[in-house]
């Protein structure tokens, strides 16, 4: 135990070879926003011209959310992108993030690819680093990110606005990440897709590197009555969205969009794994019928595939899942429980 | 390893007895700001009427920044207050915070006093919880907080504005926390103060529970040319502030304010321990001479003792410390280095 409080991501001009400065040097190129003050202060400035700042925070822990052997560049991307995904689902434009790194050691072989990959995402998503904190830990490494976005005042897309009659949309495809983890851990999916290296790699990549739907944020902001990102499993997340809105939903299982790889595996692993597995980082949203055409057009322009999978209905019961024949599909496991 | 991404501090109305909801329940009373959305969303809203949002982030790790045996209420207070201290030094008014908790287990005997103490500080400092994330970890527990404050546009007090002729002020007393840790670990201070339980307890408390100087924020905002909080040791932090401002300083060691307990121990432990020990969470600031009277008056009104310990001078060399006879005092260890 020490008496100190962590080393900010602050470059120390008096001691450029000090540990703090070394770490800050990795991350300084990512601090492109004037509000980051070039990482020479211990606070950052987030300017606002009267719009709301959307705040989201999400942490990943070695051995829990990623493997110690995962490449540092994928860990960096995942840590930032799970937060970007939340901003997208809230209709927010990324404004920046702060980073807390709990490290066992400061090896260049880990920090360099980590910082480089994070820097690429900073540019791709226009979400600059504003500041951070590095702490040493004797335990598993951990990366905690708090990200900020901007929305017009009072316009953040919440979870509570879904109304009966709204259509339920999801972006992209569902279940890929869960199958990717199954491949990684030598589960059924690995057997089913044995010999199909491309499908396996696709699923693995989907598990390791989320593809947040920030391109859709403007359409979500303009048209969705409620939205969230799918991180803990589609079925459970839909139940949460409905509960927050005081509504229920009727969802058709066969409409849930699957990738080619997932379609090839679904009969062996079961649909439940796909809709409860989590880590999708797609957007789930409710869109009033009158807005559906415009929403679809906006999604098309953004290059984001969207699929209507059901309808919001009145009631407080859990969402009802049915198959192509209208029979109820009972899902025993809605989402991953944490402890 | 699991496929999921952590459990937001989000209450799930469909599953009020679920683990997520249990955790959210501890913290819901702390989410008093409308922007927290009652912890039913995975993002929060920080409203702004055009003022700047000041962002700071700081993490504490079990076994590094606190002992596993430390009372949960002191851990909670420390985790929040180290961030509040940064806001104070930037002249910012607290606006809220997000909390990431990496826990090994969710024992009521730990979470209850942790959440209760955090709740008291939320009220004391008018800094509501806006949201958060809980993750499980097999390793040491960790608490990461990102806190927000408000300042008028463009007015955050940085590190770069100190100018030759400014006076260097510190609040309160310096070195108490370092001595408190020394007491805790059975160091020299424990010997020197043997029999003086009151002094020992005072120092221990100063180590465990920072007393952030948020009452001084308005005076800092109005009068300081540069400021930071003293977290890594006065000597090192002053060097950082000077370096960021492109100036040096001349400091008189005997002017550094000491508590009675520290004064009793200083000859045995050495002044260097006090000015390099860190964890003070006092404010260090430079104040232009024309502002000094008003600053002192503001501090007096805020009930925060301030002491001028030296002067900002031109030059890029490290600050010069002298004793009452004007002889240079060489400090070998400016502050704690992290790795």
TrEMBL record, chains A, B:
Keyword Transferase: yes
A GO BP annotation: thiamine diphosphate biosynthetic process
Amino acids binding Mg(2+) 2: 58, 86
Pathway stated in the Swiss-Prot or TrEMBL entry: Cofactor biosynthesis; thiamine diphosphate biosynthesis; thiamine diphosphate from thiamine phosphate: step 1/1
A Pfam family of this chain: AIRS
Amino acids binding ATP: 132-133, 159, 231
Sites where the protein binds Mg(2+) 3: 42, 86, 229
Positions that bind Mg(2+) 5: 232
Annotated positions binding Mg(2+) 4: 42, 56, 86
Start and end residues of each PurM-like C-terminal domain: 163-315
Note: Reaction mechanism of ThiL seems to utilize a direct, inline transfer of the gamma-phosphate of ATP to TMP rather than a phosphorylated enzyme intermediate.
Function statement: Catalyzes the ATP-dependent phosphorylation of thiamine-monophosphate (TMP) to form thiamine-pyrophosphate (TPP), the active form of vitamin B1.
Name assigned to this protein: Thiamine-monophosphate kinase
Gene this chain is encoded by: thiL
